[in-house]
Amino acid sequence: MPPQSYARALGALLLLAPASAASTLFGLAMVHNSPEMPALVRIDASTGSAKLAGPGLSALAATGDLAAVDSKRGVFWYLGDTGALGTTLAGVSLTNGSLICEQAVPIREIGFVGFGQSLNFLPATDELVISGIVTNFTTNVSAHVVFRASADPARCGSPIARVGGFVGDADYVPMLHASALDPAAQRLFLGLATASTSFAVGIVDIATGKLTRVDAEDANDGHQLIGMKWCAASGTLVGLASGADYASLYQVELTPETGKWRVRQVPTDFPVVMGNEGSVSAFDSASGTLFAMLAANTTTQELRLAAVDVATATISGSPPVLEQVGLGLYFNLVVPDELRR
Questions:
Q1: Looking at domain 3-324, which CATH architecture does it have?
Q2: Coil, strand, or helix at residue 99?
Q3: What pLDDT shows up at residue 48?
Q4: In this structure, how many other beta carbons lie within 10 angstroms of the beta carbon of residue 167?
Q5: Bridge partners, 205 (sequence order)
Q6: In the prediction, which pLDDT does 324 show?
Q7: Where are the domains of the chain?
Q8: By the 8 A CB rule, do 240 and 227 touch?
Q9: Alpha helices (H) along 61-167
Q10: Which residues of the chain have pLDDT under 50?
Q11: Residue 57: how many other CB atoms lie within 10 Å
């Protein structure tokens, strides 16, 4: 089946708007079926209210860490899929939700829209950092490839320049994955599948595209980062994970230089991490707040938009998500450039 047929199950994207980092989230929701179309939505982080902010868009969207915002230009970027272009970089106006531009990206979709891909914004150079998996069908070898692209909407990503890549960790595609960017050290962190049931955090030099280190994960000990975010203040990757019994919530941290893990329990009545097990999340580095979708149990239909203070591993608020967007809202919270350096 083509990638387009899976968009309804995979959902769409969300991100934290820098102009009002404490209150406004932006994202995508499906507003039309057959053909399936996402649209921009605004979400009040304090109340959980979600409202449409624009018309339907042509590029399908996936639930995952596949969005970035350039707040200076007011552009919401996401990686999606169109029948004409395949993997597609789409730019959307934060002002009215209209499509600014679309550009083909030379990454093949693998089964589901967005699998094995990543998108981040590098404010210092006004570039988008894109990664994905490509396969040489002659040799049957798959590789992760890293690209850097212009974030100028007038150029819509052009030129999309291939930086480099690596093989050895692309034979398996992680169904649940995310990415994080350390702009100061020019490092891209990726969720990898080293085998069919084993996972790792890859650390990639975005100047060369080379894999510099892989930190293995041990889910049995709570050491698993799916919705990873880079916290410059602590020098760690941080995310949330549910306990094996879904009765407890944990904040998981990894120091990349040492491979040292830290796991802290987060007190809450909503211990189940939703949104592709945390890939639906956002980090506001200015306040040290991690936003994520939680639930009270595995059967409830009610989602909570939790704000976690990562310094103390405590939740400051968790309003229910109130959808006013039609066919359904599928979250992927991504923090844009709240501070441009």
A1: 7 Propeller (2.130)
A2: strand
A3: 84
A4: 12
A5: 187, 210
A6: 60
A7: 3-324
A8: yes
A9: none
A10: 1-14, 16-22, 327, 329-341
A11: 24
